[in-house]
């Protein structure tokens, strides 16, 4: 089956009309119609014929085509049945060569089972639906799955949260989680006109490179649990947020050992301080 012109909104719309399909807002579907941007983004993924890649939300396959053209083995996760049907036809020759597989369904519900059965890829890519971007990034980290490199195009606001530093309004448990697991670098900002349909928000492509010094704490599960607890009520102090987790005596001992005042708030603590607090708490419980 012949691919549509991935750079032309008119051609994409005509192709969808001919196949009785339409973009579904509930899935956060937007196609990147800037060829130069697509190439630049995939260049950062640093792939060759020995690479394995997961792609979330291939749509009509513009990025899929770019990835497979570089020889990588690709598994794509697609929730839209219509797109899944077309993508299977577009890349049938790669499927026959064992280079392409499609997993249909909601990636938030399918990725873990697929990973357990087949193992994770060494690369991750997605023009991620804005409504699931933070969730899929956090879920993989929480489940202990980290990729050698991940390149995601996401809502700029989500990207800012990923790289936010302590004391800033965008700093959250998500910021800490991302920076704990990866070194994060901005690739390019993309205005709405780079996409079709044009989204109401600006986007940013981000490169995430696996940290070699991970996890830098004695008990990663406790660290993640503590992180969720500390940021559960942003207006509360660190001490008050920790009480349900460790009780008054152990909370005070852990804070003292880590050199942290109980009166500060979680958003004022750096990643290093949070890791110290986790280790102090781990030695007490």
Automatic annotation (TrEMBL):
Gene3D superfamilies: Ribosomal RNA adenine dimethylase-like, domain 2, Vaccinia Virus protein VP39. One of its GO terms (molecular function) is RNA binding. Specifically dimethylates two adjacent adenosines (A1518 and A1519) in the loop of a conserved hairpin near the 3'-end of 16S rRNA in the 30S particle. May play a critical role in biogenesis of 30S subunits. PROSITE patterns: RRNA_A_DIMETH, SAM_RNA_A_N6_MT. This is Ribosomal RNA small subunit methyltransferase A. SUPFAM superfamilies: S-adenosyl-L-methionine-dependent methyltransferases. It comes from the Bacteria. It catalyses: adenosine(1518)/adenosine(1519) in 16S rRNA + 4 S-adenosyl-L-methionine = N(6)-dimethyladenosine(1518)/N(6)-dimethyladenosine(1519) in 16S rRNA + 4 S-adenosyl-L-homocysteine + 4 H(+). Keywords: Cytoplasm, Methyltransferase, RNA-binding, rRNA processing, S-adenosyl-L-methionine, Transferase. Its EC number is 2.1.1.182. Residues 37-212 form the Ribosomal RNA adenine methylase transferase N-terminal domain. It is found in: Cytoplasm. NCBIfam families: ksgA. GO terms for cellular component: cytosol. It comes from Treponema ruminis. It holds the Pfam family RrnaAD. S-adenosyl-L-methionine binds at residues 30, 32, 57, 78, 106, 127. It is an enzyme of class 2 (transferase). Belongs to the class I-like SAM-binding methyltransferase superfamily. rRNA adenine N(6)-methyltransferase family. RsmA subfamily.
